[in-house]
UniProtKB/TrEMBL annotation, chains A, B:
SUPFAM superfamilies noted in UniProt: GroES-like (SSF50129), NAD(P)-binding Rossmann-fold domains (SSF51735)
Superkingdom, natural source: Bacteria
Pfam families the UniProt entry points to: ADH_N, ADH_zinc_N
This protein's name: IMP dehydrogenase
Organism: Cellulomonas soli
Length: 352, 352
């Protein structure tokens, strides 16, 4: 291994590729992974924009795939040379919460770039190498090395595809469902894929951008609604039996988007939400009570979804990696952020 | 028919049995029902206590069973002489929302004691007779006249048993579920029945009253927790694998009870709520996001549940009518309210 480089955020609009210490196995359950592809998440932009303040320079990035270089003595399920997918959170995959499928509440939960329960800092994903804690629980190996065509689709399983799938599962999308997707970012677009994959008959993508509308339709959206607010709700009702959707997938996280979601569901409908709540808008319980519209979801336990989604990615049945419309070398990570921040890109992929 | 009497609310702590006009068939879809038993609902106490202001004297009561006296020309599914159950809301049972099982969002929804869409006033349940609009959609006939032993159980299907069942269904209680019931009123107690009926393995009743604790246990609660707030949550976790419940049934409607419910669910758990939100406490979306605890439920579409629940009532498999611990003649309706208001009774049954 060489002296490695990784992305460090210093403050608003200031991410830099810097030389950092080489990762080493610190615990027998660790692995070291050479990153083959990483990406920038919409939630990384929160720090980038200063909405979430950066108090001291820190490693950033929580979506990556790569090749196992080295494993600790207790690692059993992955071995050097294997290609692996890392979900956006670290989990043991054995505790009671993981067994319930809620890996994001794992008893040993840790986040890339943050200290774990013992205060040991974790590496982050936008770098050349990553020390992976709880490697057996966290990593999922692919059948073999993916081709360069497959690579973006596989990478999407680290977050956005699993997160869109979580929204669809939380909203109980099933065969014949009518679905509205609020949000045309990478997660919303993947939610369109997920809804169709689970059998939805109608999928209405709410989007005002021609390129994203086109991608939503390529992913299986049957309808596009550009309007927002009450006009958007009226259009959705027009399209869906005059009553609204069985399932609404909220993939933004603002007060407005949640209200859009609640208003777009039919009585008894279900909102599945995965948009990180921005500023903690609370849910209008009286509206939920009188309409019987439910709200389920949260931070997506993507680890548990990787195996089933990987099957469909590997077979070519789904192509979520099409959300990456900008591919840059890791050295240009600053531009990868800027392009997403300025909405010149839906999602940036980084190749170390 | 004689000149009939019905309950009229005049203001806080002022309900009176008064002579009112005899009900007559006004539309061909109406029926007239002679009330055999009615009851007082916890939500009636809102008006009784002045929380919901009474602007002018009005008929009250939305839970009753009785015998069909007369039907309009278009009524097909019930006939004079049949014993019928009236759910707490009026519905056509044919519109798109009813077909989705959300009878409380029926396109022709109306409430007992309130004007319907055309401004025609509806009768209410705490009286001797009731004009029933949309009789085919609203009423469910029993196989035959219930015995006096069966009567309270059958009456409970007009609201509390169906409402408790809705909480359990909304929380997706199933075989093996661990369940917490927040609220030991009639609905909470019925929710215990519902949870066990749907296969719950553990049902923790949160109750501080010895008589209600005993009834909860008779209904199948496996555990009772008297503590509230953080102490209550700690006790629940102790009892349920250290993590909390798969399903929590919120049967109160206050900010505190909803918080108790959210805190009592395990990560990924499900809150089913049927407590009428008092004062509109909003839901903490950030907590729901980070824990993946969902919230479903609302005003219960009991009409749709009556047939399946009636089967179990009729066979004696469930005995929800045990929640009636005070039986009074209709003439003593004022005492029926006072006893519930002062918590001397869980629920009052009225016999005209």
């Amino acid at each position: 291994m060489q002296v490695m480089r990784a992305t460090v955020i210093h403050g608003p609009h200031d991410v830099r590729l810097e030389t950092v210490p080489d990762p080493v196995i610190q615990r027998p359950t660790d692995a070291v992974v050479r990153v083959v592809a990483a990406c920038v998440c919409g939630s990384d932009l929160w720090s980038y924009r200063g909405v979430r303040p950066t108090t001291e320079p820190g490693r950033i990035g929580h979506e990556f795939v790569g090749v196992v270089e080295e494993v600790g003595a207790d690692v059993r399920s992955v071995r050097p040379g294997q290609f692996v997918i890392a979900p956006f959170s670290i989990a043991d995959n054995t505790c009671v919460h993981c067994r319930h499928g809620v890996h994001t509440s794992c008893e040993q939960l840790a986040w890339w770039g943050s200290p774990d329960h013992d205060g040991v800092p974790s590496d982050a994903g936008q770098g050349e190498y990553v020390r992976v804690p709880l490697a057996d629980g966290t990593l999922v190996a692919t059948p073999e090395q993916p081709s360069s065509e497959l690579l973006p689709h596989v990478l999407s399983l680290s977050d956005v595809m699993g997160t869109g799938h979580h929204a669809a599962r939380a909203a109980q999308v099933g065969p014949g469902s009518t679905v509205v997707v609020v949000g045309d970012g990478a997660v919303g677009l993947c939610a369109v894929i997920a809804a169709r994959r689970l059998g939805a008959e109608r999928v209405v993508a709410m989007s005002r951008h021609a390129d994203r509308q086109a991608l939503a339709q390529r992913f299986g959206a049957t309808d596009v609604v550009a309007e927002r607010g009450p006009d958007g709700v009226a259009r959705v009702r027009d399209l869906l039996d005059g009553i609204g959707a069985d399932c609404v997938l909220e993939c933004v996280g603002t007060k407005e988007s949640m209200q859009q979601a609640l208003d777009s569901a039919r009585p008894g409908g279900r909102v599945g939400f995965v948009g990180v709540p921005a500023g903690g808008p609370e849910l209008p319980v009286q509206q939920m009570f009188s309409t019987n519209v439910s709200v389920a979801g949260g931070v997506a336990p993507v680890r548990g979804y990787i195996p089933e989604l990987l099957e469909d990615v590997w077979s070519g049945a789904i192509q979520p990696g099409l959300v990456f419309d900008l591919v840059l070398p890791l050295a240009e990570v600053a531009e990868a952020y800027a392009a997403m921040d300025e909405r010149r890109a839906i999602k940036s992929m980084l190749l170390p």
